[in-house]
Amino acid sequence: MNNNLRILPLGGLGEIGKNMMAIEYGDEIILIDAGIMFPENDMLGIDTIIPDYKYLLDKLDRVQAVLITHGHEDHVGAIGHLMRDVDAPIYATPLTRGLVEVKLRRAKLLQDVELVTIQAEGTYQIGSFTIEPFRVTHSIPDCVGFGITTPAGLIVHTGDYKFDQTPIDGRPSDFARLAEFSRRGVLALLADSTNADRPGWTGSEAIIQDAFDKLFREAQGRIIVATFASIISRIQLVADMAARYGRKLAITGRSMRDNAKMARKLGYLNIPEEMLIDIDQVANYPNHEICIMATGTQGEPSAVMGRLARGRHRRLRIKKGDTVVFSAHAIPGNEEVVYRTINRLFQRGAHVLYEKIANVHVSGHASQEEMKLMINLVRPKYLIPVHGELRHLKQHAELAKELGYSPNRIAVIENGTPVEFEGDKLIIHERMPGGYVFVDGAGVGDIGWSVVRERDQLAQNGFFMAVVTTNGRGDVIGQPDIISRGIIDMAESDDLIEGAKDTIARVVRQHGANRKPVDKPIRDALNRFVYAGTGKRPFVHVIVK
Amino acid sequence: MNNNLRILPLGGLGEIGKNMMAIEYGDEIILIDAGIMFPENDMLGIDTIIPDYKYLLDKLDRVQAVLITHGHEDHVGAIGHLMRDVDAPIYATPLTRGLVEVKLRRAKLLQDVELVTIQAEGTYQIGSFTIEPFRVTHSIPDCVGFGITTPAGLIVHTGDYKFDQTPIDGRPSDFARLAEFSRRGVLALLADSTNADRPGWTGSEAIIQDAFDKLFREAQGRIIVATFASIISRIQLVADMAARYGRKLAITGRSMRDNAKMARKLGYLNIPEEMLIDIDQVANYPNHEICIMATGTQGEPSAVMGRLARGRHRRLRIKKGDTVVFSAHAIPGNEEVVYRTINRLFQRGAHVLYEKIANVHVSGHASQEEMKLMINLVRPKYLIPVHGELRHLKQHAELAKELGYSPNRIAVIENGTPVEFEGDKLIIHERMPGGYVFVDGAGVGDIGWSVVRERDQLAQNGFFMAVVTTNGRGDVIGQPDIISRGIIDMAESDDLIEGAKDTIARVVRQHGANRKPVDKPIRDALNRFVYAGTGKRPFVHVIVK
After folding, report:
1. What is the pLDDT of residue B205?
2. Which residues lie below 8 Å from residue A113, measured CB to CB, with a gap of 6+?
């Protein structure tokens, strides 16, 4: 047992300290968030990635609580996985709790997990930790950070935040509580670094109201707005505009519909019942009385916008005169497919507005001036930049240096790197082995980089296989079976197959007398033959019967 | 034979009218540029893409000339392919000609192709076309657009341009010639749309001098600057800084070294011989006397920066104190791998500067105000936005409308869509079938989407194959051979293989008496078995002997 305070970011992949964080003192651990990450383009076949919490597996009895900052996927998406292992209550504000319940229900764990509803102004004792949530503004309501008073000192964890002075729900960040923390003295601030490379202030959600008002005023045809399923405040904004300009609202895409339903039930989304219509009813109204909200801002082929772009939506078809709005940011790695989706919507006759050409989206994360304000508000002894790629954390550290923080008061760490406080001295430990856990089909953590590399080789070069029967005296019996995929068009493959058969016959003749093994010589010869003919190096496999 | 003027953008994939353009009148055709495109992330295994010029194949005798605007890959990269089919002279300015020669030499065509060196101020008669190049500023010297006087009217093609008033080589765009075209009356302007979504003016190459001056002044250790191999002006800028601050310069990465050598020979790059050192000599000098220029700004794993980031460069290793500069823009689709490379360089202890956090790169393309200026300078009857994705062309059209152009004076067309002028009336024809031509290994155009889709299936799900020998009476003889790749880790695959064998034995017992074919029942059963065990749907193939 260690009587120092330890802070350990778990999770992996670029986004450091975002998806899960462990705070440990004595024999008590609290966890903050349990989010998923999205696979990068070269992580072939991977569905999602969850934090690697192997470190916790022999300490599960010590986990006292899971605190959730807000209901976005990268903060709650892995809760269904985590709660199979962890037996501790989840603490969340009402809307966040609603979103967590949806996850637990899908994981068939809702009955087994204790959920504690917290209020942003409350104070909660969990073991020897005192938890004080504080309201922050982001792109979903009911978002909090946490003040965590430990026997070793006060830790402040911002969660995702920006300082929006005019948020859609009228509830700005809780500056008073942040100032109160500062007055008491803060040992360490763990602060969101997502936009550390953006100068200035992030715009308020209110500024996009103007852009939406203009487009609702001017659009003659239908208006189709795509955004993230969980940006409740954006759904509210669009619903308000639809009401103002006399349009019915249809919400489509399962996740958005579920979230909207839950948020309405809990009172976080205010849409009059008579305004809402089903997507099937859209055709019953004139174009200028229709507004549709949909999923698919990242160009996902199976989401609504992806299907509309390819003309594959069963109940809706883009037509000339439609105004389509991408009210979201293209996540790095998705730009290509997002822009392809936008181009296809233009091709189908829609007028498309997106972040680059219209103010239809603002970030939910603090920019540089807000990050400086947060540091100056909280005045921690130590800054631990979290939520971002390493380059963002480094830049966050640069900002703190501009405020006079010396490098030894800033800990830029990666996931899996424990930070420990001996008294108020900060020690950075060696990074622990581990990384991400791939979720792939039915498997969680069953596959690793070696399989992804196999897939990559198949993806780049395909495979080529031959099943050969020989008589052990230098003759091929019958015709070899040859199967290939992903090398060249089937229509062009006759020459390749005939040539491969000749190659096999030649090798068997040369090497196959006296029952000598010929699989390796055949494989080598086929490798050379396929490369000479196609320039490709597929996975070649030979079975000799 | 058609006595109307026709304009036809060839090429494909997002970037419209960029890689090749055909101008046709009577029985004469001239081509502008022959560039390559880079495959998108989901075009698995594809090396590059070249324009689809099937349309020309039965008209090759009519091609009078190939005009080249400048020496970047997306404008000259396919010249080695094109000149295997086309027998016509290439017209290019001296530096561009040098870069074209490199391509032709690699394609073993240098002896067979006539090259005509043109000057930016000259006038050239080619058949019934009068060609007047005009100087434009971009990110490579010796860059031109073309005025093309045809019997039907004057066409102006901007090529890639921005209006840089303080270019590194001291030669601004030729406003006089543009004004002269305007005076004569321009039928159609074909203008670069790349940055149509950027407001304002693109910064001059000169503004990044300040950022470089600051970093050269402050850096204590080595400076490593990565940029595109063909941005000669950036190489000049960095060389000037190295000279100013007493650093030796090593240029590494084959393409950059080749380009620099050629540009120095032709007088477009001015670096004193005694300043240049080989990468192997770097260790002979103190850190603060070293500057290295390298390739790999797009995170390409085999280029210098990619190898340095992974610690895989044979002659150079990143060390603490190095300043690394990414002096380039991450091309959409590459952001993820670029940022991963940057993060890894940070991990290795380098301080990394890149476009988002420092002024170390400016675009080579006009922003909105420059695009408006171009239109107002040339005052064409028709605007045909080119060089961009459809969304950029649409936005370029919006800008023209702001200048008072009515929609019927703007032709937003996609590659493969011919535009024809009947007198001065513009007609947009149906888009011709065709698309991109994939270059894949040794094949050019041999493979299409079907193979890419096969690769995608393999990449997402892998494959699973079984070779089964039966006695035709319901028994399996010996052990089936089972080969799988890309499904699960080999270490975990024993259960899968054993279960598959049981499945095969069961199906053969059930279906295989009386020599009934069992391959399809086995395949169906294996499909179900693999999906139940892994959640994956690989390509399953069964051979029954």
Report:
1. 87
2. A83, A89, A90, A104
Measure CB to CB from residue A448 to each of B14, B485, B489 and give the nearest one.
B489
Region(s) of chain A under CATH 3.40.50.10710:
207-353
- CA-based nearest distance A490→chain B, Å: 8
Domain(s) of CATH 3.60.15.10: residues in chain A: 5-200+363-444
Residue A1, pLDDT > 60, answer: no
B152/B132 Cα distance (integer angstroms): 16
| Segment A98-118, tens digit of pLDDT | 999 989 998 999 999 999 999
C-alpha to C-alpha distances, A498 to A189, A475, A528, nearest whole angstrom: 68, 17, 15
Q: Which residue has the tokens 């911002």?
A: A158
Distance in Å, alpha carbon of B36 to nearest chain A alpha carbon = 17
- Mean pLDDT score across all residues of chain A: 92
- What is residue B246's three-state secondary structure? coil
Task: Look at residue A436 and tell me whether its pLDDT is greater than 80.
Answer: no
Beta-carbon count within 10 A of B481 CB: 17
pTM assigned to the model: 0.89
**CATH fold group of domain B5-200+363-444:** Metallo-beta-lactamase; Chain A (3.60.15)
Nearest CA to A361 among A268, A297, A276? A297
Q: Which CATH class is domain B207-353?
A: alpha beta
CATH of A462-544, one of 3.30.70.1230, 3.10.20.580, 3.30.470.10, 3.30.70.100: 3.10.20.580
Q: Who's near B125: CB < 8 A, 6+ residues apart?
A: B131
pLDDT score of B334: 87
Q: Let me know if A192 is a catalytic residue.
A: yes
d(CA B21, CA B417): 11
Cβ(B495)–Cβ(B533) below 8 Å:
yes
A354 contact residues in B (CB cutoff 8 A): 391
The pLDDT tens digits of the residues spanning B308-327 come to 999 999 999 999 999 999 99
Work out the angle at residue A13's Cα, subtended by the Cα atoms of residues B304 and B464, and round it to the nearest 5 degrees: 90
pLDDT at B13: 59
Give the chain A residue whose CA is nearest to the CA of B389. Answer: A343
Q: Which residues contact A466 (CB under 8 A, 6 or more apart)?
A: A480, A481, A482, A483, A500, A504, A522, A526, A541, A542, A543
For residues A413 and A419, give the distance between their C-alpha atoms in angstroms, rounded to a whole number: 8
E strand or H helix at B510 = helix B494-511
Distance CA B545, CA B536 (A): 27
- For A330-381, the three-class secondary structure string (H helix, E strand, C coil) is CCCCCHHHHHHHHHHHHHCCCEEEECCCCCCCCCCCCCHHHHHHHHHHHCEE
Tell me the Ramachandran region of residue B127: left when phi exceeds 0, alpha when psi lies from -120 to 50, beta otherwise: left
Cross-strand pairs, B190? B157, B384
Give the separation between CA B335 and CA A331, rounded to whole angstroms.
Answer: 10
- pLDDT tens-digit series, residues A178-227: 999 999 999 999 999 999 999 999 999 888 999 999 999 999 999 999 99
Q: What is the DSSP letter of A130?
A: E
Q: Which DSSP symbol is given to B539?
A: E
Catalytic residue, from A192, A361, A387, A396: name it.
Answer: A192
3-state secondary structure (DSSP) of residue B210: helix
For chain B, the first-to-last Cα distance in angstroms comes to 61
Which strand (E) or helix (H) includes residue A186?
strand A186-192
Cβ separation of B534 and A441 shorter than 8 Å?
yes
For the cut 90, the answer to whether the pLDDT of residue A152 exceeds it is: yes
How confident is the model over B126-148, as pLDDT tens digits?
999 999 999 999 988 899 999 99
Q: B491: Cβ–Cβ under 8 A, 6 or more apart, which residues?
A: none
Strand partners, A162: A137
